[in-house]
């Protein structure tokens, strides 16, 4: 039998490279909330360039919940004028990754998008971008619901009590994650407060129970 030789140096090198890329990405995401508009814009362009150069995929980027918090937070800065660029990036992420839709729901970004749409009632371009984003989120949500229903129908090994206990356990884990995350949000200088990450996180558990009803009601308005 041929022996398989594992190059530990190569494995360690790949691990170090992955860790370095993750640290670099986290730094770029953090700078989206910088007090200087020039740095915020540069960080946004940097992320977009990495996607276009295939240095990172939309799905990998969508795993970072902090990214979506920072992207929505950009609308809080009065001097920031790259709104369409942010919406285009959100559309691209939602179109390519279901994780993007889930993270937007998780930070209660749906309510913010509807508020933003009303605020830009005189800007047709912004409104169309938001409508496109909401439509994509609706399609992604419907697909996820179909998958969840399929998985539930195959869960014959669970009786009703086991399933109820399992769901309560998952909800407790989610609540714990959101509570801990809400204390990690850095403060940033805002010209006005339209999107408050910590407030949205604290209300996520309650809003998740009716998120689908809210979504389909609001996108049809």
TrEMBL record:
* Short name of one Pfam family: RTTN_N
Any one Gene Ontology BP term: ciliary basal body organization
Q: Where is this region: Disordered?
A: 175-207
Family matches, as InterPro entries = Rotatin, Rotatin_N
Polar residues compositional bias, start-end = 175-190
For this record, an example GO cellular component is: centriole
Q: Which domain of life is it from?
A: Eukaryota
Q: Which residues form the Rotatin N-terminal domain?
A: 38-135
The name this protein goes by in its record: Rotatin isoform X2
């Amino acid at each position: 039998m041929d022996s398989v030789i594992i190059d530990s140096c190569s494995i360690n090198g790949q691990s170090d490279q992955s860790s370095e890329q993750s640290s670099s990405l986290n730094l770029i995401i953090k700078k989206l909330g910088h007090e200087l508009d020039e740095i915020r814009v540069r960080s946004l362009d940097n992320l977009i360039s990495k996607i276009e150069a295939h240095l990172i995929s939309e799905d990998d980027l969508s795993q970072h919940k902090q990214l979506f918090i920072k992207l929505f937070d950009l609308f809080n800065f009065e001097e920031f004028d790259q709104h369409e660029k942010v919406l285009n990036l959100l559309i691209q992420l939602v179109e390519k990754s279901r994780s993007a839709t889930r993270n937007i729901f998780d930070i209660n970004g749906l309510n913010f998008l509807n508020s933003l749409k009303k605020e830009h009632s005189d800007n047709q371009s912004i409104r169309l971008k938001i409508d496109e984003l909401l439509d994509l989120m609706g399609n992604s949500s419907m697909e996820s619901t179909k998958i969840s229903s399929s998985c539930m129908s195959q869960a014959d090994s669970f009786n009703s009590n086991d399933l109820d206990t399992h769901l309560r356990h998952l909800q407790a884990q989610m609540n714990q994650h959101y509570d801990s995350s809400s204390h990690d949000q850095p403060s940033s200088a805002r010209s006005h407060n339209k999107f408050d990450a910590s407030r949205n996180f604290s209300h996520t558990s309650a809003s998740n129970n009716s998120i689908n009803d809210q979504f389909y009601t609001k996108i049809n308005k």
